[in-house]
């Protein structure tokens, strides 16, 4: 089963977590991720 969950945070965080593994954090980089790069990372995990 594939699932996507969005959880709002007031601190400006934007994180992508797949199977409990954080693959991107805006808090760590200061920038929003490149959408294509995130899709590639997720695709390589499945």
Describe the overall structure.
The chain has 46 residues and is α+β, with helices and mostly antiparallel strands. It has a domain at 15-45. It is 33% helix and 20% strand. The chain contains two helices and two strands. The chain has helices spanning 26-29, 35-45, and strands at residues 15-18, 21-25. A two-stranded antiparallel sheet has the order 1-2. Strand 1 (15-18) and strand 2 form a beta hairpin. It is globular. The N and C termini lie close together (11 Å). The mean pLDDT is 85.
Question: How do the helices and strands line up, and which of them pair or pack?
Answer:
Blueprint: E1 15-18, E2 21-25, H1 26-29, H2 35-45
Antiparallel strand pairs: 1-2
In short:
This protein is α+β, with helices and mostly antiparallel strands. It has helices spanning 26-29, 35-45, and strands at residues 15-18, 21-25. The mean pLDDT is 85.
Sheet with the most strands: spatial strand order: 1-2
Briefly note the structural class of the backbone. alpha+beta
Query: What overall form do the CA principal axes indicate?
Result: globular
Q: Beta-sheet strand percentage?
A: 15-25%
Count the beta strands. 2
What would the average pLDDT be, to the nearest integer? 85
Note the gap between the termini. 11 Å
Separate helix tally: 2
Radius of gyration, taken over Cα atoms and rounded to an integer in Å: 11 Å
Low-confidence stretches: none
Order of helices and strands: EEHH
Largest sheet: 2 strands, antiparallel
Helix percent band: 25-40%
Q: What's the assembly state of these chains?
A: single chain
């Amino acid at each position: 089963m594939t699932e996507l969950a969005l959880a709002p945070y007031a601190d400006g965080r934007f994180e992508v977590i797949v199977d409990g593994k954080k693959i991107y954090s805006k808090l760590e980089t200061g920038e929003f991720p490149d959408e294509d790069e995130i899709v590639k990372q997720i695709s390589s995990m499945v």
